[in-house]
Amino acid sequence: MSEIYPVPPRVSTRSDSPIQDMAQYREAYARAQNDPEGFWLDVARRRLRWMKEPTHGLDGSYHTIDEGPFSWFGDGVLNVTESCLDRHVETRPSKTAIIWEGDEPGEVRKLSYRELHKQVCRTANALRELGLKKGERVIIYMGMVPEAAIAMLACARLGAIHSVVFGGFSAEAVRDRVRDCGAEIVITQDKGRRGGKSIPLKEVVDKALEGEQHIKHVLVYRRTGEEVPWVEGRDVWWHEAVDGAEDLCPAVPTMAEDPLFILYTSGSTGKPKGVVHTCGGYLTFTSYTHEIVFDLREHDVYACVADIGWITGHSYIVYGPLANRATTLMFESIPTYPDAGRYWDMVERHGITIFYTAPTAIRALAAQGDEHVDKYDRRTLRVLGTVGEPINPDAWRWYYEIVGDGRCNIVDTYWQTETGGVTISPLAPLTATKPGSATLPLPGIVPLLMDDSDRILRGPGEGRLCMAFPWPGQARTVWGDHPRFVATYFNHYKGYYFTGDGCRRDTDGYHWITGRVDDVLNVSGHRMGTAEFESALVAVDEVAEAGIVGFPHPIKGQGVYAYIVLQPGFAPNDALEAKLHRAVRDQIGAHARVDLFQFVPGLPKTRSGKVMRRILRKVAEGEPDKLGDISTLADPSVVEAIVSGARSLP
Ligand code: WTA
After folding, report:
1. 311 Cβ inside 6 Å of ligand 1
2. Coil, strand or helix: which one is 32?
3. In 425-525, which residue ranges form alpha helices assigned H by DSSP?
4. pLDDT of residue 13
5. Would you state the pLDDT for residue 1?
6. Does residue 415's CB lie within 6 angstroms of at least one atom of ligand 1?
7. pLDDT tens for residues 37-86?
8. Contact at 8 Å (CB) between 168 and 590?
9. Residue 448, by phi and psi: left (phi above 0), alpha (psi -120 to 50) or beta?
10. What integer pLDDT is reported at residue 591 of this predicted model?
11. Number of H helices, E strands in the chain
12. Which residues of the chain have pLDDT under 70?
């Protein structure tokens, strides 16, 4: 029997939420299943401001996905910023929209909805002056400053498509994304601040753009005031272009299905894919899920400490919360700066009521001792969320008992870049929770488990997680490559969306995500592709072949294990390892790092030349006795060398 955490009675009534109890959840779930179009049309009309309300729901399906994307609310016209800003300026202009907490504790800025609206309009006007038009792409490469959210919304105001690139990515990675989406404008800042360190954002952009003729302008926000290189004619200071611009900017009408943004994400193979989300469906879904999952109320101070470079920042720092007229916090620093009490210090100072982070941060902070938590007053907290990777029950319990004093609801939210918003999660405070389980699907989400013979598994069991029916917030395509979208997500099981995750369903119908079943790594909640690491490593002259797998890591969730085959005549040494680290950093970014290198005489391959990754994985996971059948290997002696030289964390 697994333990069930009952609903704390103190918070058993929800304020305005469309779902007030579990009976209403079941009703909404049934309605979304029986009449998805009617259900979502209602939600979309009720929640958003439309220039022209949509009259129909879904066009297309998973079965016809190879002919083109499905669409939601196809005849609706809107501009998402009117839902996120204008209507709130009419009702609550002085309500705080964004609380910004800078790198140094107590370095705070607050922007009201009125102020945010003005800044977005000015920035949109400045971007239009720089030549930006509807449908064009803008790369945003910034740290966690309010101007990053303003830049996103300013693009949306003009109907332009933003693509935010996490500020840890390298120049190579920025260049790939600039090229892939054909961006003409890049928005960045002089330098970033993170954990007392300075991040050379503008410098990286300059390097990325060497030789990129199609870039018209680089708009540079001054964050630190440090000297940065300047390209005359191309580079424009944010304050010079934005501060003098008009305070009002008309919202450009977009169709519900026009792209809102592209976000690059790692998969099993090749370079990251530009996942496309659209205006009407995405905002409907993020707004709905943000309210029902977190039990959002008018006076909440909501803090999601993700980075806007990832989907969590898009959906649950910027779009969902602003659509819901929430007060949303942006955090520039890291959880351990200046010490491991930083989050709880912020909870006390800002009166945070809803707090949302990743399991990796919880594990790292739990390891530092409870005194960092106990020091601060956390009585305002009501809901605690996690996202990004499976949460182990120990970390869950620490979050519940220590951070939440056994008084707050935990929502373990399972979702992906591709799903746009939360798909499987408890609804605070209604759903009884079990530590480590994402519990039940939200209305409109129909999860299915496939067994090893690709049959649908009924009742309790473990299998591969698929979804049976589209919802408005689901990604529509891969930018410029729809066949890749189909091949990645819809070819494994015809008529179903395949998530890439494994999942167990228990006798209560609760879902337990077991992690990726493909070659995607999840390191500290950051999603990375093994293929990206491998191509960075084999590009080093001394390296003949590289095989990358994940292994369990006590803090990061997964660590990165690299098997390296050197070219003849080379031997491993410290200088070479340092060179390999540099190659990964230069090709991907500072957040990508190999934890363990093992130099091997060869990779285990079948006679047809395919690398048997299962063997690499088992050895890295410390289970060399569970290799299974290795009789199809071309050279079984390779395995002995791999097993005998296996590495593990100190
Ligand atoms: C994993 C992040 C278990 C999963 C929003 C998924 C989770 C990948 C959870 C997507 C969770 C996310 N429990 N695993 N609550 N949330 N994942 O695209 O493997 O960066 O496929 O989106 O993170 O990562 P992505």
Report:
1. yes
2. helix
3. 482-489
4. 58
5. 38
6. yes
7. 999 999 999 999 999 999 999 999 999 999 999 999 999 999 999 999 99
8. yes
9. beta
10. 93
11. 21, 31
12. 1-4, 6-15
Ligand 1 nearest-atom number relative to CA 390: 3
For the beta sheet containing 477-478, the strands, ordered from the edge strand earlier in sequence to the opposite edge, are 235-237, 217-221, 185-189, 137-141, 161-164, 259-265, 273-278, 477-478
Ligand 1 within 6 A of CB of 516: yes
Q: Is the CB of 513 under 6 A from ligand 1?
A: yes
Quick one: how far is CA 529 from the chain centroid? 14
On whether the CB atoms of residues 150 and 120 are closer than 8 A, the answer is yes
Residues comprising the chain, all counted:
650
**Sign of the torsion angle spanned by Cα atoms 328, 331, 337, 338:** negative
Ligand 1 centroid, distance to 523 Cα (angstroms): 11
pLDDT digits 0-9 by tens, 79-105: 999 999 999 999 999 999 999 999 999
**Smallest CA separation from ligand 1 atom 1, residue:** 389
For ligand 1, atom 8, the nearest C-alpha belongs to 416
- Given a contact cutoff of 8 angstroms between Cβ atoms, the answer to whether 268 and 529 are in contact is yes
* Three-state SS at 261: strand
Cα(648)–Cα(650) distance, rounded to whole angstroms? 6
Q: Which atom of ligand 1 is nearest to the CA of 265?
A: 18
Please give the full DSSP string across 117-141, using - where no structure is assigned.
HHHHHHHHHHHHHTT--TT-EEEEE
Q: Tokens 């909440």 sit at which residue? A: 300
- For residue 417, which atom of ligand 1 is closest to its CA? 18
Domains of the chain: 1-25+93-442 (3.40.50.12780), 520-644 (3.30.300.30)
Q: Which of 286, 310, 277, 315 is nearest to 477 (CA)?
A: 277
CA of 11 to the centre of ligand 1 (A): 28
Q: Is ligand 1 within 6 A of the CB of residue 465?
A: no
Please tell me the distance from the alpha carbon of residue 170 to that of residue 178, in angstroms, as a whole number: 12
SS3 state of residue 234: coil
Q: Is 544 helix (H, G, I), strand (E, B) or coil?
A: strand
| Residues 484, 491: Cα–Cα separation, whole Å | 10
Residues facing 605 on adjacent strands: 611
What is the CA(310)–ligand 1 centre distance, in A?
Answer: 11
Ligand 1 center to 526 CA (angstroms): 9
Question: 286 in ligand 1 pocket by Cβ < 6 Å?
Answer: no
Residue with CA at minimum distance from ligand 1 atom 20: 527
Nearest CA to ligand 1 atom 22: 416
Report which of 98, 509, 643 is spatially closest to residue 325, judged by C-alpha positions: 98
512 lines ligand 1 (CB under 6 A): no
CA 426 to chain centroid, in Å, comes to: 19
What was the pLDDT predicted at 2? Answer: 53
Alpha helices in 209-246 (DSSP H): 238-242
| The pair of three-digit structure tokens given for residue 522, joined into one six-digit string | 């999840």
What pLDDT score does 9 carry?
Answer: 43
Q: CA 216, CA 239: separation in Å to the nearest integer?
A: 18
Pocket of ligand 1 contains residue 475 by CB under 6 Å:
no
**How remote is the CA of residue 532 from the centroid of ligand 1, in Å?**
19
What confidence score (pLDDT) does residue 559 get? 97
Residue nearest to atom 13 of ligand 1 (CA): 390
